[in-house]
Amino acid sequence: MTDQPARWTQATVYPDMWADPDDDPRNTEGVSPDGELATLQDFLTDYRTTLRMKCEGLDAEQLARRSVPPSTMSLLGLLRHLAEVERDWRNWITDGDPLPKIYGDGGGDFHGAVAEEAEVEAAYSALAKEQAATDAKLAEHPDLGERLGKDGIAVRELMVHRIDEYARHCGHADLLRECVDGRVGQ
């Protein structure tokens, strides 16, 4: 007997996929968008969607489960962390005082990810709010070469950094989800 869940996928067309192509909300078929900004936004949207997909169908305990001890990382912690990071990115591109941390200093995004439905709802809400706020702020600056904030970060650099952050954490989410219930797929 083992505590390890059996590996499985919901996909039936391609067994290494997370979902069948007809059920996948990401833009995986058709023509890619025109232009650099639209392409970057498309990749960011797909990674954001992937993260949500990796969290779907789990209860509060499963989302908060630290699947790889001694790590404090959990799927719920990733949701909270990315809300915090979205806020940090807005701080990078403003000239004013930085917005306060959502979850406090010192890893509160992961340490405070407890198995309570209210925490799950709050994490999803905070992430959506912070994503929308960062997206709105960047929409004011469609020139990817424009430099913003005290450090003069280029909009392009920030967009690539955002994609990198979500992609990296989607990789973590793959492993965390597999440890929770055995579900696998890209």
From TrEMBL:
This is DinB family protein. Gene3D superfamilies: dinb family like domain (1.20.120.450). Pfam families: MST. InterPro entries: DinB/YfiT-like, MST-like.
